[in-house]
Amino acid sequence: MKKVVVTGGAGFIGSHLTEELAVQGYVVVVLDDFSTASDENIASLRQKENVELAQGSITDLPRLQKLFEGIDYVFHQAAMARVPRSIEDPLTVNQVNITGTLNVLLAARDNSVKKVVFASSSSVYGDAATLPQHEGLMANPLSPYALTKLAGEYYCTIFTQLYGLSTVCLRYFNVYGPGQDPHSQYAMVIPAFIDRVARNLPPVIHGDGEQSRDFTFIQDVVHANILAAKSTAEGIYNIGSGRSITINQLAEKIIKLMQKDL
After folding, report:
1. What domain range is 124 assigned to?
2. Which positions are annotated as active-site residues?
């Protein structure tokens, strides 16, 4: 039975990934500091016989070195997330996202982990006018968060080239799905819209609403991670739906699906 680590495994994406890995029979070690994890996520994970919860931080290299012993795959989801938060505190986001990722790679290399799957972000493209955005576009990070994700990709590439550690980087596009907190300070647009419409309030749209986004369902992201680990593929891949929708269209669709007259 294969054994894996999911860093940030109690978070939104990480908990869904952990649940699916457990269903597929993997022994899953969840490494999380639980600072942003919901009580529901933690309670659900505790019920799984083949899931082990380990409290800790990716900034603690000795902890990672010990935890990665005997591990086959590492799914590196842990990060100080969201662009606004990174603008408020660029020093901490650098320490967690860049130094933390370097620590993950070092521990994986030293423990002969078969593969590291790194959660990157479409934010590395910045305001690229070319649509759809593809992996061949030049990166143009516009925030400390985006820059840390790009740096993580470069570190993965270097560790593959220099040390033979197999890595793959997945650039997520606007992930949504069950379990997102609509009341978070950095809530994503879909849960925030649904929450307001459910309370018979119109969605709050910034700007003219004609900006387009590619929204990706959480289960697609989960499956992409598992396929990336099993595959021999390395490098960088976009993880999105391939379909764009404007924020205005999104608001209209949510209102219609929820059968509200707003």
Report:
1. 3-175+216-242
2. 145
